[in-house]
């Protein structure tokens, strides 16, 4: 049991020197509430920006395979 206590004391000593900043968490409501239209616009923009190029590559995959420098 004393080995466990020494281990815990060592762990506490190590953790004491590691300063971790606390996050600023606020429970206040948003200063500017987004309307449903704004939320839809942002979601569609993110969808097109992230998934658009991936869909293009997958749709043209056979064409990319036929290129001389394409995958074997």
From TrEMBL:
Per the record, the pathway is:
Energy metabolism; oxidative phosphorylation
The signal peptide here is none
Topological relation to the membrane, as annotated: Single-pass membrane protein
Residue ranges crossing the lipid bilayer per the database entry:
40-59
Coiled-coil stretches: none
Main location (coarse class): mitochondrion
Q: Where in the cell is it found?
A: Mitochondrion inner membrane
One Gene Ontology biological process? mitochondrial electron transport, cytochrome c to oxygen
GO terms for cellular component:
mitochondrial inner membrane; respiratory chain complex IV
Query: InterPro entries of this UniProt entry?
Result: Cyt_c_oxidase_su8, Cyt_c_oxidase_su8_sf
Name the UniProt key words of this record, in alphabetical order. Membrane, Mitochondrion, Mitochondrion inner membrane, Transit peptide, Transmembrane, Transmembrane helix
Of which family is this protein a member?
Belongs to the cytochrome c oxidase VIII family.
Q: Any idea what this protein is called?
A: Cytochrome c oxidase subunit 8B, mitochondrial-like
Species assigned in the record: Carassius auratus
């Amino acid at each position: 049991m004393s080995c466990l206590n020494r281990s815990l004391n060592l762990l506490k000593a190590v953790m004491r020197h590691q300063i971790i900043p606390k996050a600023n968490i606020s429970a206040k409501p948003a200063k500017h509430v987004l309307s449903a239209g704004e939320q839809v616009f942002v979601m569609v923009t993110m969808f097109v920006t992230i998934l658009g190029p991936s869909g293009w590559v997958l749709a043209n995959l056979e064409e990319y395979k036929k290129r001389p420098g394409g995958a074997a």
